[in-house]
């Protein structure tokens, strides 16, 4: 199995390839569920140049235990989400375009497609504004995230989470696709929102019956 450092380095390259950010913006982390250690991208280094030894490792108390680079300025955002959500072991903070449009208006991404309600939640909400890199931004994000898989940061970007890095990327894909579809659908008509009861039914189905028998 790949080391956690390697998972974060590869995810940085993938985020760039998928055009989910620009330059050195955005940041990525994962957590080893057995030790509670958190592996985070360093601050301001080109994703193509980040090496495994540049990844900053925090222990479960939020202290840096390995790595001599400065961690991403959004380290509080990552640490507070892990603290609040035991089910989350990977976080991708993007500066993506379509979900970013919602982060600029402060409007939530509503439940308009089945993959979105099954994987991400009943909506993606926008956290109250706070300056980048602050504890206030981290706490606002945790509050607006709730038990969902993504949250928007007002005038800033998007945060997607998952039980592992693959799931966090899947959430990024579905959030971007849904944001894009919703914007397009508003050009041609009035989007229909999926009713609450149907959201619950679809979420139950995915939890209990979807895919091959285990
Ligand atoms: Zn950012």
Automatic annotation (TrEMBL):
Record keywords: Lyase, Metal-binding
GO process annotations (BP): pentose catabolic process
E.C. designation(s): 4.1.2.17
SMART domains linked to this entry: Aldolase_II
Gene3D superfamilies the record matches: Class II aldolase/adducin N-terminal domain
Any one annotated GO CC term: cytosol
Gene Ontology molecular-function annotations: L-fuculose-phosphate aldolase activity; metal ion binding
Domain Class II aldolase/adducin N-terminal: 6-183
Matching PANTHER family: 3-OXO-TETRONATE 4-PHOSPHATE DECARBOXYLASE-RELATED, FUCULOSE PHOSPHATE ALDOLASE
Protein name: L-fuculose phosphate aldolase
